[in-house]
Amino acid sequence: YVNFLVPGILIQMAAFGALTTSLSVANDMQKGIIDRLKSLPIASWTVLTGHVVADLVRNIISSLVMIGVAYIVGFRPNASVSDWLLIALIVLMFTFALSWLSAIMGLLARTVEAVQWMGFLLIFPLTFASAAFSPTETMAKGLKIFAENQPVTHVIEAIRALMTNTPMGDHGLLAVIWCAGITIVSIPIAAYLFRKQISK
After folding, report:
1. Beta-carbon neighbour count of residue 41 at 10 Å?
2. What are φ and ψ of residue 140, in 5° steps?
3. Long-range CB contact pairs, 132-137, < 8 A, 24+
4. Cα-based torsion angle of the residue sequence 65, 68, 69, 71 in order, rounded to the nearest 10 degrees
5. Which stretches in the chain have pLDDT values below 50?
6. 10 Å Cβ neighbour count for 36?
7. Contact 14, 93 (CB under 8 A)
8. What's the mean pLDDT when you consider all of the chain?
9. 194: phi > 0 → left, psi -120 to 50 → alpha, else beta; which?
10. Residue 7 and residue 10: Cα distance in Å, rounded?
11. pLDDT tens digits for 98-155?
């Protein structure tokens, strides 16, 4: 079960870790840091990008620690070096996409508490109603349909297949499509909301 569980825990941790971006952005907006940055000769897009990149770095460190602990408790993957590189790429794509989505929440929320509430409403259903903790085949019909057609399940199953050297099916392609789609939609929206906020 450890080998089955680790991919789910890894992505759950990355998802909740990505919410740091929303908290950081909300803090910047509320504490007047953005007003200070407006007077400096920097491009406005670097503020959000900086938060997203910092989030990626934090998640890389967290992922390495988590995998190290997993080895201690009995995790024994069959992944090759190329498989691990693909795993790292998928985790980074997933974190990058969710970080930009989190930036939108940080720009929309009026308080830090609201950011936490919004993040909980987004991440909790996606991670717990997924293939993270049990196979989707064992779920009730309605839950199964939701779990099999949302991004977290495809990301987890792609990573699980790479870690255990089992067939990936279409999970890898769908994981990439979901991550790319979320990123493509989220970046322009976040940029628009940020410009709107700093123009006030």
Report:
1. 4
2. -60, 155
3. 132/5, 132/7, 132/8, 132/9, 132/11, 132/12, 132/156, 133/5, 133/8
4. 160
5. none
6. 10
7. no
8. 86
9. alpha
10. 5
11. 999 988 888 887 777 787 788 778 888 888 888 888 888 888 888 889 988 999 999 9
* Cβ atoms of 136 and 144 closer than 8 Å: yes
DSSP labels, 28-89 = HHHTTHHHHHHTSSS-THHHHHHHHHHHHHHHHHHHHHHHHHHHHTT------HHHHHHHHH
Q: Look at residues 185, 9, 193, 194 and name the one whose alpha carbon lies nearest to residue 97.
A: 185
Q: What are phi and psi for residue 182, nearest 5 degrees?
A: -60, -40
Task: Dump strand ranges (E) for 56-199.
Answer: none
pLDDT number for residue 36: 67
148 CB burial (10 A radius; 0-12, 13-18, 19+): middle
Measure the CA–CA gap between 160 and 156, rounded to whole angstroms.
Answer: 6
List of residues 6+ apart from 5 with CB closer than 8 A:
132, 133
Q: b or e along 113-137 (b: 16 or more beta carbons within 10 Å of the residue's beta carbon)? A: eebbebbeebbeebbebbbbeeebe
Round to whole Å and give the CA distance between 152 and 70.
20
